Amino acid sequence: MNDLLDPLLLSRWQFGLTTIYHFLFVPLTIGMALTVAIFQTAWVKTGKAHYLQLVHFFGKIFLINFAMGVVTGIVQEFQFGMNWSDYSRFVGDVFGAPLAFEGLLAFFLEATFIGLWIFGWDKLPAKLHLATIWIVATASILSAYFIIAANAFMQNPVAFTINEEKGRAELTSIWELLTNPVALAAFPHTIFACFMVSAGLIITVAAWHLSRNQHLDTMRPALKFGLWAMLVSGGLTTIAGDQLSLAMVATQPMKMAAAEAMYETSTGADASFSIFTLGTPDGVHELFSIRIPYLLSFLSTHTFNGTVEGINNLQEQYQTLYGPGDYAPIIWVTYWSFRWMIGMGLVHILVAVVGLWLTRKGKLPTNTWVWKAAIWSFPLSLGAMIVGWVFTEMGRQPWLVFGLLETADGVSPGVTGIEVLISLVVFTVLYGSLAVVEFRLIKKAAQTGPAELSEPDEETGKPLVHTTVY
Length: 470
Known about the structure:
Layout: H1 7-23, H2 26-46, H3 49-82, H4 85-119, H5 126-155, E1 160-163, E2 168-171, H6 174-178, H7 181-210, H8 216-251, H9 253-260, E3 266-267, E4 273-279, E5 286-292, H10 295-301, E6 307-308, H11 311-322, H12 331-358, H13 368-375, H14 379-394, E7 399-401, E8 405-406, H15 417-448
Antiparallel strand pairs: 1-2, 3-6, 4-5, 7-8
């Protein structure tokens, strides 16, 4: 029972669940902001009514998601002080800097200009109003960068010095912190994946309407846009992921070894990538495996004869550097989360490839199963991002800040297990309720379809905007 009320264990569960829940909204907010900006640009440039309908339609979904994301994100900030006060005391001077930029600069811009966009339809000139949604999209991406920079410090601590007198890390260079190699590699991988999530939603919504032969004028171009956006962003995510793997090997070789469950250092063909493996948890006995020779070597070093360090070898090195302890993460979590991330992402790209082939030359599929596959494919990219985050954070364990602060040393000393348990249960119930509300609101908005537009304006020739659409 004491283990179940361990403040460290419960605090990890609480932060993990809170972050995963918050992460349900973040990728869609980032991707959908850019999508709406693109559709509105197309409307301003061409004056075609279906683009304006798409702006309002996906704009409503974007706003619902944005509001929920803000609510859930605030709770995360409080947990740094409530559950992880020792962590905040030790690295707050460094970790807090990019978060301050995110709140005071990026989120301020995002919140301000999203208001101007919502209420400025019939009050601002068309191009000036268009600029507001582009600022929102840019600010959301900028916000993501600052958060990624903060997380990158935990993966690869840079730009700090230890103040022995005060017993904490202090920032030495904000520029060095913001240009952390891990942040530079993780940022494009994350952003392109966000675009995959928004593209997936567009594909699902368009397929639902087209399968019912409704809103053809708006949903045909929406489907085509979603399919191409998925294909392009999926390809870019894959390329960026390759660069991130190189940064991971350079800064956290144990994470790459754990991703493959590779216990002994291997070179060339022996550094293979297993698509599927059954074996004992300690890695001593491998019962069955499907492997691609040389692939792990290439992913880690960009050469087919590169050497990849194993878990046992790294464990010995870390014990020499940091003292006695187990420095390997939970292997089955890192192994399978890495594969689920890759697998779900690739399947969603495949959906786009098949969809583009079936809809070539303006055709629409007649088979019911095709539409069902498109409709139910939405969770793929979102699920890939979530398990990718699990891999990133769990693969860093037992470190809270790699090589600097262990997770066990960052938890609040005064918090009790029962206090964390109560808040964990409350947050879980509350967030579960909010999830139901979010799903129903988005489902209702998506199934309602695009709103009808009024007659064209006599001066501009463009349809008038329904300012009450939101």
